[in-house]
User: What shape does this take?
Amino acid sequence: MNSTTIELLSNDQMRAISVISLVTSCLSFIGSGSVFFCAIYHGRVCYPEIFPTFHLSLADMLSSFFLLIGSSVFLKNMVIHDINFPGSPGPCGYIMTIVTCSYTIAFFLTITYALEALFRFRRRLTDGMNLDLMAVQAVSNKWMYLAYSLAWLVPVVLAVVLMLVTGNLRDKDDSAALEPIPTPIITDQCSSCFAVFWFNEDDCWVQVDEGQMWHTAIKLMFLIPLMLVLILNMILYVLITKVFKQVAMRRGLLSYHQRQEESLLKKKAMLYQGVFFFCWLPTIVLGVLSFTSDYLMGKFYWLLVVQAVAGPLQGIFNSIIYGWKRDSFRRALSERTSLLSTNRTTAMSVTL
Assistant: This one.
């Protein structure tokens, strides 16, 4: 078999990946949009049960929408040699920058969600804060406003930098070379309609001046926040479980109801983390493999398909587990007064 056949993806394989991305991103757009627009329609954006999920759904909706556009652009055969490959101007480079930015925002917002839960439990532990007071606060404390601001601003700043960098990348100048540098064959697999860590570096970035350095830097701008959030979320939910038990123990031995709530909290934490792992573990594996010397897109086509299925589904999964699956979220949308002013209030209903 020809080595080029192994290295490169066929046009049919690229179309299959783009169709999968189109479908999964469309599903996530519908799911995240349902949470976003329902919160606005009912005027409940600033309710504590809805505020964190509203932000997360907005980030998921943006990422799904622009990924859908990027996949559509590819399928409409707009990927031609001079507008949509690494180092050249074109809509896909900017579209994927926005997608990367939106997903990174969503990653950070999962941390703010966990922080909200942790801070509310800790306040309940330290000052015995009345749950009715917590009901009227969109966030647990003033520092959470900073956390939300950073969750949005840091990725946006990185996206602006990335746009400036990719917009100014130039092809290698071979005019001074002793021997002419052959013009590389630009294939559909090099389309920047898709994530940068998919690329075979030697095939897709060889024509870009200092392409290897820029390719590595751009990959790290997505993969480092992703892996960081994965680790931090695990730590935060371990702390949440610990603090919840301390809150319950303040009244003496754990009651049967409190044990039930502790068990439910652990299940929810595992569900949140399990969904995050399901969606992004293939991407992390693929990203790590892309740094190895023997990485070939053709060799890992099956993993590219798994990534195209799992990653974009984050939006619809988040809308279910952070939104529609939670009784407290649904009641907060439908009740005329805040959920937490009712006698069904528990410490956990403020958070998870």
About this structure: Confidence is low (pLDDT under 50) at residues 1-5, 175-183, 337-345. The chain has twelve helices and no strands.
